Amino acid sequence: MIPSISKKFAVAVFAVTAVSLAGCSDVINQGGDTTCKEFLTQDDNAQNDAVTKMLKDENQQEPSGLQTTAAKNSAMAYCKTLGNEKSKIKEAPHI
Fold first, then answer.
1. What are the sequence ranges of the domains in the chain?
2. Which residues contact 67 (CB under 8 A, 6 or more apart)?
3. Distance between the two ends of the chain, CA-based, in angstroms?
4. H or E element that contains 36
5. Which of 45, 47, 62, 71 is buried most deeply by CB count within 10 Å?
6. Around Cβ 69, how many Cβ atoms within 10 Å?
């Protein structure tokens, strides 16, 4: 009887873990690989984080506030005009 309960418990723990990890995949900051669809649905802080990571990955240094704002506005304009939902924000023209 006990082995049966242990198996059920192990399966339940595995299922809960799998569901928890699947939910976490959305919060990973992809930087420049963030799609326009994701970018346009993010809040202001998440957009800033994505753009900051993109600029940091490109230049290997912390971007200034002006660079971040300019790149964010460029990504926003690109995603709303030329880009499509699968376009990545790093495809937007930026300095």
1. 28-91
2. 55, 95
3. 66
4. helix 36-41
5. 71
6. 13
- Rounded to whole angstroms, how far apart are CA atoms 15 and 19? 6
Q: Where are the alpha helices (DSSP H) in the chain?
A: 2-24, 36-41, 44-59, 65-80
- CA 47, CA 86: separation in Å to the nearest integer? 16
Written as one letter, the residue type at 21 is L
Q: What is the residue type of 45?
A: N
The pTM for the full model equals 0.70
CA distance linking residue 59 with residue 82, whole number of Å: 25
If one counts every other C-beta atom within 10 angstroms of the C-beta of residue 94, the result is 21
Tokens of 1: 């009887």
List pLDDT tens digits, range 10-22: 554 454 444 444 4
Residue given tokens 């300095």 in the structure block: 95
pLDDT (tens digit per residue) in 76-86 = 999 999 999 99
